[in-house]
Write a structure and sequence with these properties.
The structure is a homodimer. The first copy, chain A, is built from twelve helices and twelve strands. Chain A is of the alpha/beta class and about 375 residues long. The first copy, chain A, has a six-stranded parallel β-sheet, with helices on both faces. Chain A starts with a helix and ends in a 15-residue tail after the last strand. Chains A and B meet through helix 4, helix 5, strand 2, helix 6 and helix 11 of A and helix 4, helix 5, strand 2, helix 6 and helix 11 of B. The structure holds a DNA duplex (30 and 30 nucleotides).
Chain lengths: ~375, ~375
DNA sequence: ATAAGTGATGCACACGTGTGCATTAGTACC
DNA sequence: GGTACTAATGCACACGTGTGCATCACTTAT
């Protein structure tokens, strides 16, 4: 049975209120009393009960992090950033993986609501409006990261995928490529649209038309889908000379496929990834990709939630009928009402899977 | 301000105790009263407060997971297994990364203790005895995964690294290799020793002496260290024909180094990894490795903690002076006292980085 | 010497939930 | 019709912490 402030109070021969105040450094308590109490607290190995404090203060000192899959190394790095900031501000993290399963999502939202997390960071692309509302009903601030429906949320951090994709495409154009294709991941919603968008914008700016068969959306974002996607493109009667992949994982699958097909990279075929996951530097050859500042994105997301918490004085000052309107927060919270969206830019990382196109394509 | 059982009580015109019992399905309450109360609870969108319940029951319905680095894809997969089991049993997860930093470790232990997690799973190889004692003082069950000092803990799940390493080595021996070296990661403690051990056992069983310079321990487990390690071995006057790497990440670095050096894999040089992380199937060539059932390991760890929780009736039945002796749990907890160590076996995964040695080595 | 202040501490209640015990109403038995 | 029992519900306290208010001792000014 853990030590409580009452135990300390008994030992130090004061009331438990005095102990509570002393441990918080209240100026009401005499200096030496404070020191004496702190000393006995140390001796007894006292650790406050988060539950009790949370009950009283309506603050759990915990954030929820919802991710679609823990296995994905991409989320791992974002998590790292979140974790760092949270830990520095002495917040703990509740972590859960939705696995794209609505039922799990529901369970997660419920569990986190019961634990009264002070805020939530959602890194899952497919997060339903339904669950979101449940959080909002509790007045829990939500920050989304790279969400497909970022504009539905008031607070979000995301990466400028359009810009990144444009840079990637421009790089290929600069090398001299003209027949460039895009391999997407339809299950990632908005993200793939942004990247496709950037691709098309840049192709358009270069005065090049993209034939519809040069745009292919796979149903997932793993190496397998990359491999399958490559096969699709190679089977075309007029295959591309360069392929812009939705992400690094798919690009890795593509590289594997090219190797199996005996096609030299980058001399005969150029490939680009996106995200710059750790392994992209160690593919063979090393992958040209776009470096998303993942850790920074995570950190920024965490900072934003914490900022919202500071602004929002306490949960119980909100009026109970918060379900009015479609706004994320009930009116009356004052200055914090304006939405905040932060868009971060990454940088192009030219490695060795891109080069000028082969001098003699099969067709002129 | 969230809905409480008192709100429900008022609406349903009963006392809050009745509500509490009804929601728990107590047989004391009349069937139709239960239904009526459940209905109003649903209407009001009631969610119990984990804090309040935790305060009363001494159960937080949360587990702590301490990992050394979130970025490491290896831990990602273990986490997945843990998460699955936890979610299925409606436990939430507190997650934190120690980053091999003792100070952070201390902060994590404290935070988790304050939140009164019901149990802890430690996936960090380097976890100090100091912090462990703090958990034990609170009677928090600990399960360690692949820890360097597994025998210090009563409950642990680990993978049979010795066996795995033997299988890997035997595979190389069967292919005809004689000059086989081992590249370790000294910062992983026990794990690298086990793997080295298996390597040496199998070499010994084959009647082969391993020259001391064929054993090299790097100071980390990433691709960079792999690359550096390879350089060390290649600089030897009598380099090996095959290299057993501590893990896949290092092997990937080694592959890169070999490619840079223009050495053909597997024709001129064989390489093996360990762990079977997702990317090992997509290296060029695909990596021969040892498949650790990571997800299963995580799941087993979670199951073990939960089992311990079932056995351990409640925290407050323990006598307060739990600091007697060096045992993990004070005597008197009855049947749960015997330690539980579960060792899981993986399987060899032969891919394409291993082949019979080149017919004409530089020296006969 | 009394009033007015100030500094330090304790009392008592609250947060939301769970539970032993008392209370009430209804039923069956003699 | 009184007793003994069961079924259903309420009362009141507890968990550990935080805090407004009252209390007390002691100093200072009048």
């Amino acid at each position: 049975m853990p030590v409580t402030i009452k135990d300390i109070a008994k030992r130090a021969e004061v009331s438990h209120s005095t102990v509570s105040r002393a441990l918080h450094g209240s100026s009401l308590i005499a200096k030496n009393t404070v020191e004496r109490i702190r000393q006995t607290a140390r001796e007894l190995g006292y650790l406050p009960s988060a539950a009790a404090r949370s009950l009283k203060t309506n603050r759990s000192q915990a954030l929820g992090v919802i991710v679609s899959s823990v296995e994905d190394p991409f989320f791992g790095e974002i998590l790292q950033g979140i974790e760092e900031v949270a830990q520095k501000n002495s917040y703990s993290l509740f972590m859960a993986a939705s696995q794209h399963d609505p039922q799990r999502e529901q369970a997660i939202v419920q569990a986190m609501s019961e634990h009264r997390v002070d805020g939530v960071i959602i890194c899952s692309a497919s997060f339903k409006a339904e669950q979101r509302r449940q959080f909002l009903a509790y007045g829990v601030p939500i920050v989304v990261v790279n969400n497909q429906a970022a504009e539905d949320y008031r607070y979000s951090i995301y990466h400028d995928d359009v810009d990144g994709s444009r840079q990637i495409t421009r790089h290929l154009l600069d090398l001299g490529h003209r027949r460039i294709a895009y391999l997407g991941n339809s299950s990632s919603g908005r993200t793939t649209l942004d990247r496709l968008n950037g691709f098309q914008q840049e192709m358009g700016a270069a005065g090049l038309a993209v034939p519809p068969e040069y745009i292919h959306e796979a149903s997932g974002g793993g190496p397998e889908e990359g491999l399958a996607g490559l096969e699709y493109f190679l089977a075309l009667s007029y295959p591309p000379s360069a392929l812009v992949c939705f992400n690094d994982m798919m690009a890795i699958g593509v590289l594997k496929g090219l190797q199996q097909a005996g096609i030299q990279v980058p001399d005969e075929f150029s490939v680009t990834g996106f995200d710059n996951i750790v392994f992209s530097a160690f593919t063979n050859p090393p992958l040209t990709t776009f470096d998303q500042p993942k850790r920074f994105i995570g950190a920024e997301a965490a900072r934003l939630v914490l900022e919202l918490l500071d602004a929002q004085p306490s949960r119980d000052t909100l009026e109970p009928n918060a379900s009015s309107g479609n706004r994320d927060y009930p009116a009356g919270t004052g200055t914090t009402t304006q939405p905040r969206v932060r868009m971060l830019k990454g940088r192009l990382l030219v490695r060795e899977t891109t080069a000028k196109p082969a001098p003699s394509p099969r067709k002129p």
